[in-house]
Amino acid sequence: MAGKKTTLAAALCVGVVLGGIAGCGDGGGGESDGKGTRAVKEKGRPDAGDGATPPADRDKPAGEDSSAKNRTPSGVEKLSAEEIVKKSGEALASAGTVRVSTPDGGNDMRVDRTGDCTGTFTQEKYSSQLIKKGDKVWLKPEDAYWNDPAAKPVLAKTPQARGKYLHGTSDKSMALFFASVFCTVGEQMLSGGIEGEKGAQLSKGAVTTVEGRKVVPVYADSAEKGRSTTLVATEGRPYPVKLESAEQKEAILLSDFGKPFTPPASPPAGDTVDATEVELFDAGSG
After folding, report:
1. Burial (0-12, 13-18, 19+ Cβ within 10 Å), 205
2. Could you give the CA distance from residue 200 to residue 198 in angstroms, rounded to a whole number?
3. 230-266: per-residue pLDDT in tens?
4. Is the pLDDT of residue 9 over 50?
5. CB of 122 within 8 A of CB of 111?
6. Cβ-proximal residues to 270 (8 Å cutoff; 6+ apart), any chain
């Protein structure tokens, strides 16, 4: 995955998780069976990660400057749509870390370009804690999930899964693939930035405000996929702060650019169960 650029359409393949859309493409680990269901917000937006200083051998991004200088107009809105996309991709690729979330707060991850990732994943109204280190993934559903009738078939086959982390790699487990899509998207964007959909017509709109920041929208119009939008900050570094897709009717928020974080420690073996043995999320989806 390292070194690849991520198109807006590819970034919004998280719709495979949120909206049950098949065909996520090169998501780094598997293909959708089309059974995903829309995430439902049950809690307020959590704070993913502990914000601690990363180990010495890890990349150390400078962090997103919160000073007045960070909100100095950059003039990026005066550039062409193509140049804005290029500048925003370069800014994102230089950040080193980013927070990837959904507007409803149900999915909220911090990720770095090495593939480390931690946060909250929500599926079928229940939230799970996710830890990803390289290609290894741990996913722990909240306790309420195991008391839901939908979990009975899962527990009938694998009773040892209750209260444990599902552990494995996303290419071997559909549950881990679904849960780590946001991590994969974040890693790809940090590794190569964002580029327009091939063959799409780019244009820009008037400056507006999104998530408390002034942004310029860049539209990518495709005869096949409709209009997707990248909203780029016009103050401070030209980071892309929101990605929207008309086709999948979903959005991704990007924030905390360059903010250091450390994933929690890997759970001990006694607190885990082989993810390939657990048919999570599909049990109640029909």
Report:
1. middle
2. 6
3. 999 999 999 999 999 876 678 999 999 999 988 899 9
4. no
5. no
6. none
Four-residue CA torsion sign, 135, 140, 145, 146: positive
Q: Which two tokens stand for residue 118?
A: 């931690």
- pTM for the complete prediction? 0.76
**6-42+64-277 belongs to which CATH class?**
mainly beta
Q: Which residues pair with 218 in a beta bridge?
A: 204, 230
Domain boundaries, the chain: 6-42+64-277
Contact (CB, 8 A) for 163 and 157: no
**Segments in the chain forming alpha helices (H):** 8-11, 15-18, 81-95, 143-146, 152-157, 174-179, 181-192
Listed residue (76, 140, 110) closest to 278, CA to CA: 140
| Cα angle: 30, vertex 36, 40; to 5 degrees | 130
Of 144, 132, 145, 133, the closest CA to residue 178 belongs to 132
CA atoms within 13 A on the CB side of 153: 9
> How much of the chain, in percent, has pLDDT values that exceed 90?
52
